[in-house]
Structure formats: structure tokens, C-alpha cells
Amino acid sequence: MGTDVKRVHARTFQFFARPLGISFFFVLLALLWTFPLQKVMAYPFVFLFFGAIMCSAWFGGFIAGTMAVAMSSLAIDYFFVPPFYSMTIGREFRSYVAAFVICAIAITAVSSARRKSEAAVKTARDQLEIRVRERTAELQQSNAEILERERQLRELTEAIPQQIWRTNASGYVEYCNRNLTEYLGKETHELGDGAFGSILHPEDAPLFLQSWDAARESAHPFELQARVRSAGGDYRWFLIRGNPQWGANGEIVCWYGVHIDIEEQQRAQQALLISQDKLSRFSRTTTLAEMAASIAHELNQPLTALVADSHACRRWLNSDPVNIPRAVATTERIVRECTRASAVVSRVRSLFTRSEYVRESTDINALIRELARLIRDDAIRRNVSIKLCLAERLPLLHVDRVQIQQVLLNLAVNGMDAMSESEAARELEISSEMPAADEVMVTVRDTGLGLAEEAKTRMFDPFFTTKPAGTGMGLSICRSIIEAHQGRIWADSLPRGAAFHFTLGSNA
Amino acid sequence: MRDETADPGMKQTVFIVDDDPAICESLCNLIESAGLVTRQFASAEDFLKMSSPELAGCLVLDVRLPGMSGMELQNRLIKSGLRIPIIIMTAHGDIPMVRNAMKAGAVEFLTKPFQDEELLMAIEEAFALDRSQRSAKSLERSIVERWKTLSERERQVLELVTTGMLNKQIADRLNLSLITVKLYRRQVMDKMQAETFADLVKMWERMKASQDVNVSM
């Protein structure tokens, strides 16, 4: 109800009070000015009322104009048309008043129409302006949003705890994030072309450049581990990954790359590898040396006693007079010491003959895969690719897992050692097959320097070695392990490299 | 009197320390075949229990022993002032060990097994060293004995004379007449059995050098 009343009030104000006020104001103004002016001007002077009507219609609209017409007519009739101060109109002035009224109405119509169109134009212009302002604000906001998002993205790439780069399609470095430039101590523009060659460890650079070139040629992502030089000059291991970015037409636009610091993992892995290596190789050398020292000591004691007693015996026999009882007693001691020395020897032999094996059902292929995992990093470091050719559906073998793994490891490491000087592609192939129904054969093939004639005949002998730091026990131990499993082990010289085979009985 | 040797009643003995009884016995056998006296010990501790400054002879010592090692025993003997010559035996020629042993005064270093001549010659050498050491020691002892017979004044005169002071200066220093000093000097020479003044000085130096004699007045 209240709103209705309010609306009625507003209507009353809009259509009655305001036009009435405006028209009254202007007509009163005209009236007041006309009184003094009529004394000077021609008679009857009414032009100011036209002005009042025009202004009322302009400022107050058509209603105010009409009201002004009415008020002006009355005022003229009353004040300025004879008979004065009466509402009657003299005959000779009727046409004059009528003309005035008609003119006044026309002015009202024209003025208010003009006023309306003016208002319409103004409104349209105002609306346009408002819309422009709105659009501008919108644009500004979205611009700010884009800038903010870009800043966030840039911050992300800069602050991300990884090293990121981008190159163009031909490998020219265009962008490095802060993490990378800070690590390298170089700015992006200093890297430019051939950047990787200058920041990688000399040992890793050729392999990296090779796979980077291959990746760009084949347009395939690549992944590689390499040592990268830091600003301080030391090297850390990184996993370097590169992915091509494709354009709309299917061409490569750029490459995105990331360097992931794997120094710690690498170190841990290295430590693991070394400990495994130690376990399987070096510890054998040290235990061998220790064992040799202890055997030497064990044997040396009775030998020392023997030498001393032999000398003593000769002296007793040479003495004057000959001391037969002491000589006899001494020879008895000599016999005792010889027996003791021989006991040492047989004890040592029994130490080396292990009669019991821990044998269990073993999948030889699983053993080979495990070995490949074990030597993977070593192989990458030595630029050797490992290839496995494993026959399917092999029977489970009843073997000592640890010992067979030791044989495999020994052959694999020998193979890699043989290729360390080789310029050609270094490939280590481990294969398993079943040449006979009750036999599994494992072959370790390398593309190294092959076998010398002397090595071929003697390499399974203990203490025979062609390596500067070798013990010469590796293949000899391999042979004793394989023979203890009722298998055979032998080697073939290939046109390029060598192949070591061993067999294991499937029902052994 | 310089030729006066050690107590002839003290027979030189070869002391053998090795934890391997077979080696101990065969070494004894060999050494006895050369007509020498031996005693064997299974450990360094056993030998230390028996040892005394009066021991005559030499020590044949294995490096590798249970408990105290041969090298430790050598150091222990040096510290306690026992100068018995030592022959070291080892099963493996450990060079730093050889060097240390020789530096510490070992007579010989034998690598097992060794020939009889090597051992017997080393023992001979060790015995000679032992003899000269002990005679020097007994000489020292007799000098000290003689010194002990001197009176307070005579000791004072002896000390001042050996510093090279003239009789007159000594007389001034001790507030004695020159004649009295000369008299004391003659007595000192007699009691110390010194034939010449040079002999007396040498005796005094030897006495001062020996650590187990307190000559301060």
C-alpha cells in the first residue's frame, strides 16, 4: 500500500506539481518584466510570455508548456488586453488573443518535441557511454587476470624446484628457468647452440649428444642420465628428459626439457653396486689374500720347526762323539712335524671343498633378469647395451641361486671388461635356451676384443688372468661352481667378441 | 782392570719365546746341538715373570704371540733398563715391523723358516754384545763401589778436579790450603784406582752417565 501511495505522490509531482511550478515561475517572470516594458514597447506587449512558454515547455515538458499557455493567456487577458483588469476581451482584440493562443500552443508543441528528441539523444549517448565504460572495465579486468596468470605461470616455472629449458626445433636454447641458470652459473643467451656439449661431463657428452640428435631426427621424446657441471665446477648426476611440442601443422615447434637431480639416488645406487660388486668380486680377493696369509702361516710353523730340527739332527750326527739318542729323538720330531704339515694341507683342502649346496627350484630367466637389473647402471656408465634373449617355458632348475648368480655376474662383468677398449657398438647379450630335453644353456655374448689363443686354453685355470688387477680366480670359480652343478662351461671366439656358455641339467 | 769381564760363573743362556711348542722345542734342540744352554717360554708374560737384571745371554723372540706381542716385550724390556740382546723371529717379513725392531736395538731379524747358521751366528753376535754390555755394567758398578769409599771432602775435590779446575782454585773454593788439596787429590786417585788423571775423568763421566747411581751431593 505504502509503495502505491508513494507512486501516486511521484506521479502527482511529475505530471502536475513540477510542470505547474516551472510554468508559474516563468510566467511570473514574464509578467513582472512586461509591466515596466509595456510603457516603452508597442502595445500590447506579449513576447516575453512566448519566452516563458518556450522555457516552460523546454524545462518542464509539454504539460508545463500547456499550463504556461493557459496562465499566459489569462494573464494577458486580465492585465494587458482592454478592458484592463477584467477577464473580458474587447472585440477588436479577440483575434489578437486567439493568434497569441495558437502561437503559444504551437511554440509549446515545437519546444516540447524538440526537448523530447534532445532528451532521447542524450539518453542514448549516456547509455553508450555507460556501456563503453563497462566494456573498458571488463577488458581491463581480464587483462589483469591474464597478466596475473602469466605471472603465476612464470613464477611456477622459475620457482619450481626443477631445472627447465626450452629449445627451438633445431635445438637452440631459448629459455632456461632460474633454477637451471643458477645451477649452471650461465645465462640463457650464453648457452645458445650446442649448449649441452659445454655443460655435460666429457664422458657423458658424446652419448647425450648422440641421443639428443637421434631424438630430434625421429621426433621422439628422450631420457638420459648424465653428469652436469655446476657453477662451482663439480658434477652432479641428472636425469635429463626432453619432449617435443607439436604445432598445428604437425611440425615440431620446440622442445621442452627438464633436469631432475638424481645425485643422491645415483650415489646410493653406486654404493649398492659397489657393495654388491665387493660382495661378489673384491671380497673374494681379500678373503683369498687373507686365507693365503693364514695358510702360509699355518704351514710355515711346522716347516720352521722341520728346518731347525733337520739342522739339529745333522749336528747331533756330526758331533764328536756322535750323539745318537738326540739324533733319534730329533728324527722322531721331524716325522711329527711332517705329519702336522700334511694335516694343515688337508685341512685347507677340506676348507675349499664344500660338500653341501643350498639348492632350490629356480627360474633361470628370472635370475638373468635380476642380473640385468643389477648391472644396468654399470652398463650405462660403460656405454654397453644389454640384450636379453630368453627362451620361454624353461623348466625350473634345482641350483644354488647365489652361486649361479655369481657365475652370471662374473661372465657379464668379464664381457663388459672385454668391451671397455672397443670402439664398435658395445653389446652384451645374455640368452637362455634348451638345446636338449634335459639341459638348459645360458650364453653370455660380448662384442669385445675376443679371446687370445693362450687365454682360450688357460682361462679356466686358477690364477690365470689377462687383467692388470685381476686375481685370475673368477672363471676358475665359475667352472668349479658349474661343475659342482654337473654342468659344463666353455667359451667360443666369435668374429667379433666372445661367447661364454654354461649348461645346467634340468633334473640336476 | 778394563778387561775385567762379567761374572764367569754366570752361564750365558738363550731364552726362546714362542707360543708354538714345536718351534720352541726344535729351536732348543738346534741350539743345544751347538752346545748352548736354552730356556723356553710360551708367552712374553712368562718371560717377564722370570726376567731379572742378572740375566745373561740373549732372547730369541717371536713377533706374533698371544697376549703381549714380541714388539711390546722388547719395548717393555728397554723401558725397565734390561739390556738383554734380542733376536726377532717372524713368519712374514713385515717391513715396518723389521725397521722398528732394528731401531729399538734388535740384534738380528730372522724370517721363518731360517737356516741353522743364521740363528747360531745371530746368537753368537748377541752373546758378544751381552758380554760387553755386562762387563761395562760391572765396571760401572765397581767404579761406584770405589766412589762410595771416598770421604765427603774427597768427593768434592773429585768433582771440582774433573771440571778442569786448578788445585789453587779448588783450594780457594773449598777454603783449604793448596797442600791439603794436593793430598786429597792423591787420595782420590788411589781410592778410585786411577793410574792417570785422564782415567779419573773417564771414570767420573761413566759414573755420571749411568742412571742408576745418584752422585749428587
Give an overview of the whole structure.
The complex is a heterodimer of chains A (508) and B (217). Chain A is an alpha+beta fold and 508 residues long. Chain A has four domains: 128 residues, no CATH class; 99 residues, 2-Layer Sandwich (Beta-Lactamase), CATH 3.30.450; 86 residues, Orthogonal Bundle (Helix Hairpins), CATH 1.10.287; 146 residues, Histidine kinase-like ATPase, C-terminal domain (Heat Shock Protein 90, 2-Layer Sandwich). In chain A, 61% of the residues lie in helices and 16% in strands. Chain A has 13 helices and twelve strands. In chain A, the strands form three sheets. Chain A has a five-stranded antiparallel sheet with strand order 2-1-5-4-3, with helices on both faces. A five-stranded mixed sheet of chain A has the order 7-9-10-12-11. In chain A, helix 10 packs parallel to helix 11 and helix 11 runs antiparallel to helix 13. Chain A is rod-shaped and about 200 Å long. Chain A starts with a helix and ends with a strand. The model of chain A has no long low-confidence stretch (mean pLDDT 83). With 217 residues, chain B is α/β, with parallel strands linked by helices. Chain B folds into two domains: 126 residues, Rossmann fold (3-Layer(aba) Sandwich); 61 residues, Arc Repressor Mutant, subunit A. Chain B is built from nine helices and five strands. In chain B, helix 3 links the parallel strand 3 and strand 4. In chain B, helix 6 crosses helix 8 and helix 7 crosses helix 8. Chain B is elongated, with a radius of gyration of 23 Å.
